[in-house]
Amino acid sequence: MQDLRWWKHAVIYQVYPRSFQDSNGDGIGDLNGIRSRLDYLVDLGVDAVWISPVYPSPMADFGYDVADYCGIDPVFGTMQDFDLLLAEVHRRELRLILDFVPNHTSDQHPWFIQSRLSRENPKRDWYLWRDQPNNWQSHFGGSAWERDDKTQQHYLHEFLREQPDLNWRNPAVKGAMFDALRFWLRKGVDGFRVDVMWLMIKDDQFRDNPPNPAYQVGESTRSKFLPVYDSDRPEVHELVAEMRAVLDDFGDRVLIGEIYLPVQRLMQYYGPNMQGANLPFNFQLLRCPWTADDLARVIGDYMSALPAGAWPNWVLGNHDQPRLASRIGTKRARAAALLLFALPGTLTIYYGEELGMQDVPIAPDEIQDPAEKRQPGIGMGRDPERTPMPWDRSASSGFSSGLPWLPIGDVNKTLNVESMRADPNSMLTFYRRLLQLRRAQPVLVSGSLTDLTGDDGVMRFVRSHATKRFVVLLNLAEQERTVVMSAGVITACTEVHREGEAVSQTAKLAPAEAMIVEVSAGDR
Ligand code: GLC
Asked: Which of 131, 204, 475, 505 has its CA 20 to 30 A from that of 322?
């Protein structure tokens, strides 16, 4: 894999910093906590760490409301702590990816404080002010416009009213934001995950969004309209390319875009001539029904939509989505892990996925997420998937000596690292082995993916290059299945004891069993 840039064969590990490791007993994870767990990540075998925002923030959206793009919030530590973390990450030959939030700032950012002072303020045009609101709706419910009494205009906020949207058509905004990127690039960070990349530019005429004919009562108010004019605008691609150029000036860095769009539109974010995002996040597996034919269709559609030169990537979870094990069940989560590590390209795993962590039920008085507070009871809340990492068997699971900001949750207490580390059958051990396998078998990263089918409850595909060939099988049926195939040897299996077993002509798979079988190159 020598000829591949580092991020192409990387497995990226997303840390939600509030919940990974607390070092000072305030119940909230921090940078020194992350630093103290780096050896765990090395041992697991990942290549890069992406940390959700740690910039100064009033925490209305837990850091996705940034009040200073070039600082560290005291709840997470100091700039010195950050520098030390970065140095320790690099000393271990890991990479560090920061979260960049370009669409909006906090309403406490000095730019916005200026902007709302008067219509004539030089920063007025840094945000999107209008005399009248249009029908655009916030992702967190209700109108995306907030009236400001003092200056009698409305400002746009695609998320909370505490998160006013920046005006990226203003060259001064672009300049200031690109300087913020350079600040971190100069320190040596290895790349950025760009928050809501597809929302950065809005229609310059602020046209109303058309109604969504599929809207159903009880859904989020945003679903009432089709997001035609406030997202995925044609001009966004030029902006992404400019952002990419900022990174390219610093050499070997990676630009990742958070983009929730159908596959064809997602692909546009690679940019013409691959000058856009290196990796527009592929979220297709987050919403795919977990059946053989659906998975085969979704994987096939994604692979065939990739433009020439585009590098694939895969994601099974993040801090905005219900956890994998809760979505599809514990047994199938194991098969999903095997699937993930058998797919081509860059992989991103969400902290705790390697333990099979589950969503934690959150009592009404424990709710933290503004998305749940603003639209209660319709499944918008993200606290369940943001609960603390369980490290050991102690009271707060080794996460904190204080009271954790979100409950550890009984469902996750037993899924701790300490208990799993020594268990050869644990999810953690399985992840470690899959990571080792991927490192040892470059064909899994960059070989071709062919012969993809999803028949009779079994999903199947082949990963190969000239001298290696692996058949990947997942039984997603409720009953055992027998698959006809060439003779080979089981290289990895959800049933660990089957590894090394010879397969001749047929392989039997129990429900939710999955395996990677090495066959001789040239066979199917
Ligand atoms: C992204 C983040 C999410 C945040 C939102 C607003 O979708 O992943 O957590 O609430 O942007 O910044």
From this structure: 475
